[in-house]
Specification:
This protein folds into three domains: 117 residues, Orthogonal Bundle (Helix Hairpins), CATH 1.10.287; 54 residues, SH3 type barrels (Roll); 85 residues, Alpha-Beta Plaits (2-Layer Sandwich), CATH 3.30.70.100. The chain starts with a helix and ends in an 18-residue tail after the last helix. It has a five-stranded antiparallel sheet with strand order 4-3-2-1-5. Strands 6-8-7 form a three-stranded antiparallel sheet. α1 packs across α3 and α7 packs antiparallel against α8. The mean pLDDT is 78. Helices cover 56% and strands 19% of the residues. It is an alpha+beta fold. β7 and β8 form a beta hairpin.
Length: 296
């Protein structure tokens, strides 16, 4: 009985030793595979962390440089996911290539598929890049009054595909973002000051002293108006026109919005009319002098 127990104990020890040796042999035979798997996982984790870090820095940069950054930030998750997919594809292709699989046909297949997709969705891709350019460059924002090519109105929506503009007659025009990005854009709402640019014509029979007085009156009107800048004001005798002596007035209103500009410009013109009439300075209008020669 004791001998049987001893034999069983010895057999268990032998079995344990054999299992341990088999495990060590398995590790020895597959140590390269384990190291390779560990390196691949490490590269994937590091790559994902690096993409997340870059995404965080880009978001911080956008927030710091752009006041209305919500729309621009909405592109970050999309770009992050696309970047991760590209990195995973590159890693997978590299691993398969290292194990003897030919990646030429696979890459060629993906290339053909990519070309087909790009041709089919080139407008959509162009619109996405157009919207990125619009938002990052801060060309305009919601509620801005702009002209885009021949279209003029207020921006009411900017999305991945298009920009919507509400025109003065309350119609809604939708422009693809790739068209917007390649168009001549004037952001009228970004104007800080507007120019009054008028030519005042007086009659040719105006005396010399009245001409000089007319120029002085225009300068006084600008100086006395607190809503008009005086630094960049120009008042000068421009030219002798066909039916008038032209005086050029150029001044800048301190406001950029259209409502205030029109109000101030109206006040300036009304004041010019009042002052000229008070000084008996006549405004010119298109006219012709006809001379008739009577023969006996």
């Amino acid at each position: 009985m004791e001998e049987s127990i001893t034999v069983l104990g010895i057999n268990e020890e032998v079995l344990k030793q054999n299992h341990w040796e088999n495990f060590l042999n398995f590790l020895k035979d597959h140590i390269g595979t384990f190291i390779e798997v560990f390196l691949i996982i490490s590269v994937i984790i590091i790559s994902m962390k690096l993409i997340e870090f870059l995404n965080k820095k880009i978001r911080e940069n956008i927030i710091a440089k752009h006041e209305n950054s919500a729309r621009l930030l909405s592109f970050c998750p999309i770009l992050t996911k696309v970047s991760k997919v590209i990195v995973l594809f590159i890693i997978a292709a590299s691993v398969m290539q290292a194990h003897g699989y030919s990646m030429t046909s696979l890459i060629a297949g993906f290339g053909i598929m990519g070309m087909a997709v790009s041709f089919a969705a080139k407008e959509s891709i162009a619109n996405i890049f157009g919207s990125l350019a619009i938002l990052y460059d801060k060309v305009f924002d919601l509620e801005d009054y702009v002209t885009i090519g021949v279209v003029e109105g207020t921006i009411i929506d900017i999305n991945l595909r298009s920009t919507k503009i509400k025109t003065l007659d309350n119609s809604i025009i939708t422009l693809p973002n790739n068209v917007v990005a390649n168009s001549l854009i004037t952001n009228i709402s970004a104007i800080e000051k507007r120019r009054i640019n008028e030519v005042i014509g007086i009659t040719y029979d105006t005396p010399n002293e009245k001409i000089e007085r007319a120029i002085e009156i225009l300068k006084q009107i600008i100086r006395e108006n607190d809503e008009v800048e005086t630094n960049d004001t120009l008042v000068y005798l421009e030219k002798l026109n066909s039916s008038s002596i032209d005086i050029h007035l150029q001044a800048y209103v301190k406001y950029g919005d259209l409502v205030n500009y029109r109000r101030i410009k109206e006040n300036v013109i009304l004041e010019i009319i009042k002052r000229f009439r008070a000084e008996n300075i006549s405004f010119a209008f298109p006219s012709q002098s006809i001379y008739l020669n009577h023969e006996n």
